[in-house]
């Protein structure tokens, strides 16, 4: 059934219920998704309407990588618990069907049986798609787990996938919030829509995988302008340098030296970085700007005027953050979100910082040399501590009718 455009999630639900399409509950109560409805709206609807809020799940590349940043993000990492490959496939199929429906603003059909829990948790019933994207990635332990090729896919591991090696300033890295077999990056312009997606993906993983860790982030900025991080600086300016199809091919998308499933995919590098807000806030403006090598107000590099102006590297302090990144002569595509958490009752300091995420086609060449140089020399080091770390390989875009990871598990 092809729903009409302009209808709400709730209307669509009613329609799908009448037409007898939707999702049947399995024996567990959460169960496998047996049948899903077609997308509730089309991506071509006018902006402002729900349809204009749709980012397609299918395409050459996964959504959520070069997609302009939405306001909210959940990053969740799962460990696969089932030893059975077909169980794993069931979960990935259910996830795919769920994403197919939710990114289009649809909702799983509630049960007709009042005696069992509703299939969908319901908090998005009246909400539009909100540019929801779900991006999947696979960690090194997905392919080879503690020396065991448990799903017979070790030969399918991509060229550069490995845990980020221990860095000089990694003494605060917490293993509990690092790594994992599968990561899911969920982004949307409505936090409830993003949460609904991650929550239901967790529900659908029951019996197949367990949630290892989850992080929640936000990015705030005027549309079309670079958002500022919690140090008050524009963060993401240099992404403009590769903002073209050729630029993304050069910086982001894995090439034809990779196995087929990874060509057009990308490597996700993740660092959870605490930012010492209290000590930063006691730092003079001049020192803050020298830390990055850019003006706080305009975002312009030292010696230039506008945020996006080219600049002379010799005008920046040698150990400034931007200078170090430039010295590597590499580019990465950053898609970071801020986070805030609890206050330490002993010091009154806030646990807040950056969920640093970057995408690149070759982390060995692009990301790791940059991280190493920064860990050794960065002026920013006085104000930050890295506490979480992970790397995942995100497959190429999905074709309709296929499930995420199919090209790895059924090759
Ligand atoms: C290893 C890669 C990087 C880490 C880790 C990282 C952490 C980090 N960055 C900021 C704030 C800013 N970063 C900026 C630029 C920038 N950062 C990286 C890489 C890492 N950052 C790169 C490659 C660049 C681009 C450099 C260039 O080519 O010009 C900036 C300047 C504005 C911008 O371009 O975005 C800011 C500000 C924080 C706060 C942080 C850890 C908490
Ligand atoms: Fe940076």
TrEMBL record:
It comes from the Bacteria. InterPro entries: Dimeric_a/b-barrel, Dyp_perox_C, Dyp_perox_N, Dyp_peroxidase, EfeB/EfeN, TAT_signal. Its cofactor is heme b. Binds 1 heme b (iron(II)-protoporphyrin IX) group non-covalently per subunit. GO terms for molecular function: ferrochelatase activity; heme binding; metal ion binding; peroxidase activity. The chain crosses the membrane at residues 12-34. This is Deferrochelatase. The gene is efeB.
